[in-house]
Amino acid sequence: MLQPYSLINSHGKPHIGVFSQPVHDVNYKDTDYRTPLNKRAGKWKKHFHFKLFQYFGGISNDIIFGCALADTAYIGAVFVYVYQISSKKMLTWQFKRPLATQLSLTNRPDNGVSTFLTKNKKIHMRYQLNALGERRKVLDVDFGSELKIHAEMLESPDFSTMALCTPCSINGWVYAQKTAARPVTGELSCNLGHFDLEEQQTFGHHDFSAGYMRRETFWNWACFSGQNKAKTKRAKSTNIGLNVSWGVNETGYSENCFWIDDTLHPLPAVQFKFDRDDEHSTWRIKSLDDRINLSFTPEGMHKEHLNAMVFATHFKQIFGRFHGYLLTESGKRHDIEDCYGFVEDHYSKW
User: Per-residue pLDDT for 232 more than 60?
Assistant: First the structure.
């Protein structure tokens, strides 16, 4: 596996492949970005064609929350939501900013801070790599009396983060760094109540993605994080997480994987089957080698729709319950029963 410090090499080209550890610097400004006809692109194309996304999500016994920051150069997009399973109530906030004003996203996934700041609403997403090799991700949301979140997840030095860079279209590339199955500590307060995230047995996942994506991009994605409870007193409960998608990172390499505790288990291509016209339809998610076979039942969603001619998006992040199984390379089966998680159906023109 590769282990570069910076993503872009001295010739302006990205390191392509699967990385043993995340890169420290997605130094996209050093890219020798070309047009599809292999001419050196101008500075405005180089700027406006680059996209950067960061997402922190948490799933507990009663609370599901998600926070996304996206800089598409043309528009900055932010959303936050909180859903309570017991009451089936949902709170949501979303913001669009032309030219990504009030939004600043770091390109350093190990030591950096991303922020969204308005007059009375603040979001900070912090990344820290300490001397012990631990990676800490922190989400702070302060919307005054409406919402406050302080959430932290820690990746130990033994944890295997999914990190890779793949070619995209004829002239682009995408770096993806994803984490799941991590316990979350902290607090969340809103109109639904006050929640201690550790007491709620919250598990989190995180997505740091950046690159020169296709002008028209689509993806489906599925993720969950939680704990498979031991069925006998002698057995040990396991932390378990999933990250699978199609539509972006599938050129020669696969981002698809699942985690059992700290160990990452790679997967080949995965298929998604669902009815796009029925938001409540069951999804089927299955890998080519049959090592995952899952059904997903929707329960709620955050969705956005925008058609501004040059820029367009049709996006649904749906949360609900997974059932099925995962198989490790050795054939050990992990049954999934009523595990809460997410799927996405996403289209963007940018």
Answer: no
